[in-house]
Amino acid sequence: MMGLVTRCALVALSLLTITLSSPAHAQSYPSKNITIVVSLGPGTGMDVLVRLYAEKLSQALGKPVIVENKPGAATMIAAAQIATSQPDGHTLGVLTSSALAINQHLYKQMNYSPDNDFTPISLYVKSPLILVVNPSSPAKTVPEFIALAKKSNPPFTYASLGAGVFQHIAMELAKQRFDFNATHVPYKATGQSVTDLVAGHVATGFVEAGASIPVIKDGKLRALAVSSTTPLPLLPEVPPFAQASGAADFEAVSWHALLVPAKTPKEIVDRLHAEMKKIMSDPVMTKRAADIGLIPIESPSVAGINDYIKSERVKWGSLVDKIGLRGSQ
Q1: Is the pLDDT of residue 129 over 90?
Q2: Omega cis (within 30) before 154
Q3: How crowded is residue 77: how many other Cβ atoms within 10 Å of its Cβ?
Q4: Cα–Cα dist 154/136, whole Å
Q5: H-helix or E-strand containing 106?
Q6: Closest CA to 266 of 14, 21, 16
Q7: Domain match, 282 and 138 both
Q8: At 161, which CATH number?
Q9: Quick check: helix, strand or coil at residue 95?
């Protein structure tokens, strides 16, 4: 009988420990420095913005927040490091659509699971591309561009940084949607592709905002549209591709998501989500994001971020299959 009583007492104590441990863990958080692993290099738009909100996050949490850049391998180095970190809220990471929605369709092998290894905290900016042509092109609008592309023989050439990178699949999405042909010209560096676009050696391309805006403002390239469904703050006069083409749902953007390893306690996730919501709704922060060529957005809930990422996986996975790149890398 005593053995039964003892066992019951131990079970009750275990249940009490489980019940109390999660809130206690959350109350003691953070207990040490926090690291944010950034999947792109120093000086990129992502890096600049992370360093801005890391300082605010440090003030809110009362502990230093250290930014650690881990670029390379199509963002998979950073993704793997985040995925295998302790799920205690002291390691966060910033990944893009490539790591979370595209790579799994392109690569035969990956050292992390986009579906299972992360819990999102905040989806706070979108990073659009700009459709550009040489100023000598007769295309001054998106409808004119599509019409010319459909009848061009030989087909238009377009620049990107290689098969499967975002500039490439953005143009492939447009080709599929609007039924025109164009020949891919891969480059090793954005600077060289922009130089050749300016020189007229390649006809068109979806180019990153930071690389294209200076030459657009100098009149060396003509911007026809941005790939987001809303205007880019730095180029308010350039229409969204969706609006200009009449395809209201057309969007080809990368995005930045702050996340933690899966199994991080819900109380910590909720606290970080709330702190980031406050930080990124500050008009100063939204302006800083806009000033570096990004589009600040109000983050959905944690569940809403998961739903959005899942929809992006379906969208880009379907395109990868259509253009024959599944498992090509």
Answers
A1: yes
A2: yes
A3: 16
A4: 17
A5: helix 103-106
A6: 21
A7: no
A8: 3.40.190.10
A9: strand
Dist CA 237 CA 47 (whole Å): 27
Dig out the tokens for 308 from the structure.
């959005």
Which of 38, 119, 36 minimizes the C-alpha distance to 72? Answer: 38
β-pair type (222-226, 118-133): antiparallel
Interval 14-62: pLDDT, tens: 444 444 444 555 679 999 999 999 999 999 999 999 999 999 999 999 9
Decide: 81 and 94 in contact? Cβ < 8 Å: no
Q: Which residue has the tokens 């002291």?
A: 90
> How is the chain split among helix, strand and coil, in percent rounded to 5?
45, 20, 35
User: 152 with 199, same domain?
Assistant: yes
**0.85 exceeded by pTM:** yes
Domain count along the chain: 2
Beta-sheet strands, E only, within 17-72: 34-38, 65-69
Domain end (from 202, 221, 245): 245
Output the six-digit token pair for 35. 């690291």
Cα–Cα distances (Å) from 25 to 20, 35, 242, in that order, read 9, 18, 46
Torsion-angle region of 76 (φ positive above 0: left; ψ -120 to 50: alpha; else: beta): alpha
- Tell me, yes or no, whether 25 lies in a domain: no
